[in-house]
User: Fold this.
Amino acid sequence: MLFLLAIVLLLVAVVLIKTLTFKSIQPKYAATKNVEVSENAIAHLQQGIRFKTVSFSDSAKTDSSVFLALHRYLAQTYPLVHQKLALEKVAHYSLVYTWKGKNPTLKPVILMAHQDVVPVEKASLLQWKTDPFGGSIQNGKLYGRGTADDKISLFSLLEAAEKLLQENYQPKRSIYFVFGHDEEAGGKGVKAVAALLKSRGIKADWVLDEGGEITKKEIPGLQGKPVALIGTSEKGYLSIDLKVNIEGGHSSMPKPETAVDVLIAAIQKLRAKPFPASFGGSTGDFFKYLGPEMPFTTKMAIANQWLFKPLLFKIYEKSAGGNALIRTTIAPTILQAGVKDNVIPTSASATINFRLLPGTSINAVSKHVKEAINDNRVQLIKENAFAEEASAVTSTQSSGFKQLEKAVIENYPGTLIAPYLTVGATDSRQMAGIANCILRFSPVTDLEGMHGLNENISVKEYPKAISFYYRLMKELK
Ligand SMILES: [Zn+2]
Assistant:
């Protein structure tokens, strides 16, 4: 009994010591005053929303005249940017601005945003509070498709650059603005930009694109406190078609197993064998940055993963969003079989979409799927159209990360910094060949309606977004 008691006491002591020595690593910077921005800034963004720069999966449907009209509007609205920076159009509509730095031997920085937006479903129009392409303001909010994703970044970057040019500022190292035109449809534009920059031998010091935001709602235990989620990696993307061919026949005499049965069993076997969970990479960094800021019991669990990891996994697995952060996910998305109610189909197929955790390769996913299904009658066909390996993980010790966190804290005082894993794909992945340090963050707070209804940003927040990019560029190291 005494021995058991001693073990328990020792365990408690270790847990407590680990918790109490789990100290904050949040960077400390003094807040600086927000810069004065042009009073027309919000009107510029409103006008920007009115260009229906919609991306469709079928690029033939894209209305190129709208993109060209947007380009003309940008040239009119930001005259100094268009006078002093070199502008190239790549893949017809993607924009690359080069702002020459004072020291050409330094590696440039690439700041990104995308021009295109996702379509608005006709059936959902009645549920919008305003015309999604009207650019109107109601109750302090600017509504419209693209306000948050991603025109706020594009316009506030140009607004900040125009102001810096008015002040005769020239950065130490060159800055590229890269504004893709088809991020929502695969990102061929930025792929071409990356290839062009690579052909010129350009290596970037760091890259900033969309993919993270400030949240006051999303982090359990920290509700109410602003947390800047800075994407230091992003998941990979893969779709695999499962196909079964078994001779069908008349539905009045079904065989014990049809193509449909084999396919459904395969999907069930796969779903029953999820990929292993992990707290590595960006999610591990997330815990290092936020763990010490959490309420005591959460802090204790994170500080003592050697004991509480299974419990933490359980908590994360409970929500779809949490689960996506800790493992490669499996989602059946398209099912196809059958043409008539009295005919047993000869062929049945399913598309399974995977989002790969950094560290898990496309090949490893194929192997997992084969082993889980373990049935030769199920063919695996890899859909290569959009297959992307997961990104590398950007170090929180990199100069880019440090500069970004400084600009965030100076501009949004009291905000906690959190590296994290971006679950969706961004155009920045195309830059992997020319940059080791890729960061994903937009200066918005708890954006609403992204890809959904009533997308909007707060009018009051917009000058802060401009101020953020202004500071980031002005303090560029
Ligand atoms: Zn976007």
Observations:
- DSSP finds 14 helices and 18 strands in the chain.
